């Protein structure tokens, strides 16, 4: 398993697949846990009972940026913006 990954959590994301993403630190590609497990057991066919442990240590945290709304936009009713 890679030593470092980037975890992106956004429970309000439009698409479910984007609400929790685990990506490689440098590649930014999705981390394929099935592939990592297959590598760990050396791709030998068979049935396995395995214990998988994940340890998480947060190295940095950057909160999501809320979309900034100007005072004028906040004062306009939502139906007026659509018109």
Mind sketching the topology for me?
Layout: E1 5-9, E2 20-24, H1 33-40, H2 71-75, H3 78-82
Antiparallel strand pairs: 1-2
Walkthrough of the structure:
The chain has 83 residues and is an alpha+beta fold. It has a domain at 1-44. The protein has three helices and two strands, in the order E-E-H-H-H. It has helices at 33-40, 71-75, 78-82; strands at residues 5-9, 20-24. The chain has a two-stranded antiparallel ribbon with strand order 1-2. It is elongated.
State the share of residues found in helices, binned by percent: 10-25%
> What structural class do you assign from the helix and strand content?
alpha+beta
**How many angstroms separate the termini?**
51 Å
Q: Would you list the SSEs in sequence order as H and E?
A: EEHHH
Number of helices: 3
Mean pLDDT rating: 78
Q: Low-confidence runs (pLDDT<50, min 5 residues)?
A: none
Using the CA coordinates, give the radius of gyration.
20 Å
Main beta sheet: 2 strands, antiparallel
What percentage of amino acids are in beta strands? Answer: 5-15%
Strand order of the largest sheet: 1-2
Features:
22% helix; 83 residues; two-stranded antiparallel ribbon; alpha+beta; 12% strand
Provide a quick synopsis of the model.
The protein is α+β, with helices and mostly antiparallel strands.
């Amino acid at each position: 398993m890679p030593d470092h990954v980037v975890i992106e959590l956004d429970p309000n994301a439009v698409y479910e697949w984007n609400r929790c993403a685990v990506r490689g630190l440098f590649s930014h590609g999705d981390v394929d846990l099935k592939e990592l497990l297959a590598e760990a057991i050396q791709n030998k066919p068979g049935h396995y009972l395995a214990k998988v442990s994940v340890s998480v240590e947060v190295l940095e945290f950057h909160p999501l940026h809320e979309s900034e709304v100007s005072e004028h936009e906040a004062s306009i009713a939502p139906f007026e913006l659509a018109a």
